From TrEMBL:
Protein name as catalogued: HMG box domain-containing protein
Protein's organism: Caenorhabditis japonica
Annotated family: Belongs to the HMGB family.
Main subcellular location of this protein, as a coarse class: nucleus
Superkingdom per UniProt: Eukaryota
UniProt xrefs under Gene3D superfamilies: High mobility group box domain
Keywords: DNA-binding, Nucleus
Length: 196
């Protein structure tokens, strides 16, 4: 495996919130922490603090930025960070199962988009989320049933897919449509694929 990813920088406000959270946990160790409540209180407090009170958090953020720069340099610089890519997905792997909410969204998205053609994707998604919370239980059950069927489909397709991979020797990085998926790529080392 490669080097571990570099943890991002923490802002002064991020350090402040972390401190508030830790202090709350010390004062009330047996209480479940409501993140939204603490976040709201932290935000209100941060807005009323003077620069002198915020200074230590800015100093912590500066030290963290230095740590980040050192880790990035050790990793190989910003270019190396950008070049790190996700593993390619097998285009022939089964499509993941959809949730009940996703099925609901597929049905209702066109209605919302036609009612609000100027809305951005995020606004449409927010509206779908609000509507989903108000959907009657029998309607939700219908979508849950669709989701369960899709989950069963995915599980079955994955069983077949994994069996195919084992038949191919388990060294399958991707399929080729030609020859009905019999094209196997073994990667012995990066940049030197051996094609069978």
């Amino acid at each position: 495996m490669g080097k571990p990813p570099v943890r991002g920088k923490t802002s002064p406000y991020g350090f402040f919130v972390k401190m508030c959270y830790e202090e709350h946990k010390k004062k009330y160790p047996n209480e479940n922490v409501q993140v939204t409540e603490i976040s709201k209180k932290c935000s209100e407090k941060w807005k009323t603090m003077v620069d002198d009170e915020k200074r230590r958090f800015y100093e912590l953020a500066q030290k963290d930025a230095e740590r980040y720069q050192a880790e990035v340099a050790a990793y190989g610089g910003e270019d190396a960070m950008r070049k790190r890519k996700r593993a390619k997905k097998d285009p022939h792997a089964p499509k993941r199962a959809l949730s009940a909410f996703f099925f609901y969204s597929q049905d209702k998205r066109p209605d919302i988009q036609s009612a609000h053609p100027d809305w951005k994707v995020g606004q449409v998604a927010q509206e779908l989320g609000k509507l989903w919370k108000t959907v009657p239980q029998d309607t939700k059950d219908m979508y849950e049933h669709k989701a369960q069927n899709d989950k069963d489909r995915y599980a079955e397709e994955m069983r077949h897919y994994k069996a195919e991979m084992q038949k191919m020797g388990g060294a399958l990085d991707h399929f080729d449509d030609e020859h009905h998926g019999s094209h196997v790529v073994h990667v012995d080392d990066v940049g030197n694929p051996l094609i069978n």
